[in-house]
Design goal:
The complex is a heterodimer of chains A (376) and B (434). Chain A has 376 residues and is α/β, with parallel strands linked by helices. Chain A contains 9 helices and 11 strands. In chain A, α7 crosses α8. In chain B, α7 packs across α8 and α9 crosses α10. Chain B is elongated, with a radius of gyration of 52 Å. The chains are: A alpha/beta (376), B alpha/beta (434). Chains A and B meet through α1, β4, β5, α3 and α7 of A and β1, β2, α1, β4 and β5 of B. Chain A: One of its GO terms (molecular function) is GTP binding.
């Protein structure tokens, strides 16, 4: 058995200036800072690979956590999609009754469930955003969402810098955000572009074409290409990000995925009988759309990406890249209140963290004075 | 700005929702394992024991390889630690193994400070990790973890009891690292002596309050084996890299005239148990204990020592950052104060010196004045005398001229008389004053 030098690790992100709009994750090759290691040949079986089993046992005992957020206008089938993804009634599909008024403000709702499969426990938190993009004036409608994401990072950071901290810090950070693009068939709308630009800097975003059963296969392809072109033009890096590909295998796999993003999905939580099999699908007069049939829609691809193959990767990127970016910003400007586009004044959050002490008020005053001075 | 209103239905008892089909997240542990494999593992072992107890040989035997290094001499002036890192690969698992060995432990005449280099080394590794964690831009996921995960403490096979050096060292180390005591070179002890020895050691450890590492028994899959192994501590091990033909197999063994000791024979020694526990069953647990218990303890102590504390419930975030700034200002203030003090002291010294010099100058001036005065007095006196003398001379001259005048008058009148008188004077030999 021979040895190799320790393999490469997840790329880290170098940060530019503070403006969240212009921050671009630039890949920097991360070399582990390890001492010179001579190769060693082992003459017999030692049993080091048993550590993998130990890891597995520990992980299964501790359970996993996954936090997902669905963003999109109402009526695009977000709740149904979540139910379909996790094959359970996460929550009732929201139907706007005749009596209920449309929500005037964006209210985020979170639901947490524990699901178990073959001994693996997963604590799943789904955050919904009803009211997004529903108002007449949707200016800055992304602020509550970005504020929520930042608040989760803040919570984690506060736990992390305690002197006496818990063994396992509860992870409420959003690992993945699914963005529902309405199936117009044309291209991304300005609201979509604005939102995606801001969101991709702080969280992993997976855009999907919602309600894709209203598009034919050819229309889907053209729509997809146009969306990809839009994303490229506006430098929006959706998940899986090109700069985080570790090695050649990753790159090949992820390129295939990137080619198909955004997935055209259909959600359904009712079962129907097709050719003797019970399948999830939507029944219409002209046929039954099978959700899990790749010829009908790309839901299986989305599910595989999110759950079966890249879940851990999503969590890792959130922890190693997005959270670290947030931490750097926060530690650098902890004496100022967060300002600028995309930031929310967090002073009213329940955690109440930003009661500014005396010195920073002085700073703030000084900055305001200097700003006033600059306007002359 | 729209306020965020989060309706959370979360709590300790989250609803468990039944699944209507196969979702597929049972591959999660595999995903996690694959990620860890691609990152590689690292494991750091510290071997503490007197010179010549077979530390290097045991490491060679444990990992089935020959690590480079020459045996240490007994003449080291103090305890040093020697650290080597190796890359091992088994099927698809890469392990970065660091072995730290004490050199010169127990060789000195005065062993009071023998434990200090070891404790300092362990603390230095924790410190390095803490520094990396506290950095603003950090790369924790690719940081080479050098914290010691397991400490194998080699006990000399005397057969009696623990040495006091052992007790002291283990007591100092038990809160910083996972200690696994082992009896080295145990082929020197007979079976009956060994059981007595083990009982004595465990009772001494307990009575002195030394916390050695207990294999975890909370997980059912390993509880049983760990439980039984806990009872066999400390392990009596023998190390050997020589292979001998026993029966029809090649085995690691040591050959004596009276028999052959097989290393991997459980009836002969506990080497197999040690390998099982250390590597095959509990490696991950050792790493986790180091991180979540020992490192956290170190971190807590260090931060409290630096003056940070978690402030009360309605507190500001980043008490770290603000405390740091406050401390920094305090420190700057102190610096300034010190600077002021020093400046004042300097000014004072200068003043004093100046005063002294002035004094001296004044004295000199006085002296000079005095001398001058003296000189003037003298001069005056002399001038007076001179004047006196001049007066006298003048007076004398006057008298002389007067006398000459008188004489010249007298000589005209009674010149002959004077002549006669002169002649008489001349003739009178007694009056001649020539």
């Amino acid at each position: 058995m021979f040895c190799f030098p320790a393999m490469g690790h997840r790329h880290c992100c170098a940060l530019g200036p503070m403006d969240p709009m212009r921050r671009s994750p630039s890949p920097c090759p991360s070399r582990p800072s390890s001492p010179r290691t001579p190769p060693c040949e082992m003459l017999g079986y030692v049993g080091i690979e048993a550590v993998l089993d130990q890891l597995k046992i520990k992980a299964m005992k501790m359970g996993f956590e996954f936090n997902i957020m669905v963003v999109g206008q109402s009526g695009l089938g977000k709740s149904t999609m979540v139910n379909t993804l996790f094959k359970s009634k996460m929550w009732k599909s929201t139907v706007q009754g005749l009596g209920t008024p449309t929500p005037q403000t964006l209210k985020l709702q979170s639901v947490t469930h524990v699901i178990e499969e073959k001994g693996v426990k997963l604590k799943l938190t789904v955050t919904d955003t009803p009211g997004f993009g529903d108002q007449i004036n949707n200016d800055k409608c992304w602020d509550p969402i970005l504020g929520y994401i930042s608040e989760q990072y803040e919570r984690y950071l506060q736990e992390e810098i305690l002197i006496t901290r818990q063994r396992h810090i509860p992870d409420t950070r959003v690992h993945c955000c699914i963005y529902f693009v309405p199936p117009t068939g044309h291209c991304l709308r300005p609201l979509d572009i604005e939102f995606l630009q801001r969101l991709c800097r702080t969280v992993n975003v997976v855009p999907v074409i919602a309600r894709a059963d209203s598009l034919t296969i050819e229309e889907r392809e053209t729509f997809r290409r146009r969306i990809q072109h839009n994303l490229r033009t506006h430098c929006i890096e959706v998940y899986p990000q090109k700069c985080f590909d570790e090695d050649i295998n990753d790159r090949i796999l992820n390129s295939k995925i990137r080619d198909r993003i955004p997935f055209a999905v259909v959600g359904a939580d009712r079962e129907h009988l097709v050719n003797g099999r019970c399948v999830l699908g939507r029944k219409t007069k002209w046929g039954i759309i099978e959700v899990e049939n790749l010829a009908h829609c790309e839901f299986p691809l989305l599910r595989d990406l999110l759950i079966r193959s890249h879940l851990q990767d999503l969590k890792d990127i959130t922890h190693n890249v997005h959270y670290e970016n947030y931490r750097v910003c926060r530690l650098n400007e902890s004496h100022l209140l967060p300002r600028g586009p995309g930031w929310v004044n967090l002073a009213q959050t329940p955690a109440g963290p930003l009661a500014t002490p005396q010195p920073s008020k002085v700073h703030q005053q000084a900055q305001e004075d200097s700003e006033d001075g600059d306007e002359y | 700005m729209a306020a965020t209103d989060i309706a959370r239905q979360v709590g300790e008892g989250c609803r468990t929702v039944p699944l209507a089909g196969h979702v597929g997240f049972d591959s999660l542990p595999d995903q996690l394992v694959n990620k860890s494999v691609s990152q590689g593992f690292c494991f750091n072992i510290l071997c503490v024991g007197e010179t010549g107890l077979g530390k290097s040989t045991l490491m060679d035997t444990l990992f089935n390889t020959k690590f480079e290094g020459e045996p240490a001499t007994h003449t080291q002036p103090g305890v040093q630690l020697r650290s080597n890192t190796y890359d091992l690969q088994e099927s698809n698992v890469g392990l970065k193994l660091t072995i730290v060995s004490t050199v010169g432990f127990g060789d000195q005449i005065n062993k009071e400070d023998s434990y200090k280099p070891i404790v300092e080394f362990i603390d230095a590794q924790f410190e390095a990790y803490l520094q990396e964690e506290l950095k603003i831009r950090r790369v924790l996921h690719s940081y080479h973890d050098s914290r010691i995960h397991a400490c194998l403490y080699f006990i000399a096979p005397t057969g009696h009891s623990l040495k006091s050096l052992d007790l002291v060292t283990m007591k100092k180390l038990d809160s910083k690292v996972n200690i696994i005591p082992i009896i080295a070179k145990s082929d020197a002890i007979s079976k009956s002596e060994l059981t007595k020895f083990k009982i004595k050691i465990t009772s001494e450890l307990v009575s002195n309050g030394v916390q050695i590492y207990q294999f975890p028994t909370d997980d059912e899959s390993v509880a049983e084996i760990n439980g039984t192994m806990n009872a066999h501590l400390p392990f009596a091990v023998i190390g050997s890299t020589e292979e001998l033909k026993i029966g029809n197999k090649m085995m690691k063994a040591r050959q004596y005239p009276w028999g052959t000791v097989q290393v991997e024979n459980e009836a002969h020694c506990d080497f197999v148990k040690l390998r099982e526990m250390l590597i095959r069953v509990n490696m991950e647990d050792l790493r986790e204990q180091t991180h979540s218990r020992h490192y956290e303890l170190y971190r807590r102590c260090k931060l409290e020592e630096m003056g940070f504390k978690d402030t009360d419930p309605d507190s500001k975030p980043f008490s770290l950052q603000e405390t740091y700034e406050a401390k920094r200002n305090e420190f700057l203030g102190e610096l300034q104060k010190k600077e002021e003090e020093m400046r004042q002291m300097f000014v004072q010294r200068v003043k004093e010196k100046e005063a002294e010099l002035k004094e001296a100058e004044k004295e000199l001036h006085e002296k000079f004045d005095r001398l001058k005065k003296l000189h003037q007095d003298e001069k005056k006196k002399l001038e007076d005398k001179k004047k006196c003398l001049d007066d006298e001379v003048n007076a004398f001259k006057q008298r002389k001229t007067a006398a000459e005048l008188l004489q010249s008058q007298g000589s005209q009148a009674g010149g002959s008389q004077t002549l006669k008188r002169d002649k008489e004077k001349k003739n009178n030999p007694w009056l001649c004053t020539e």
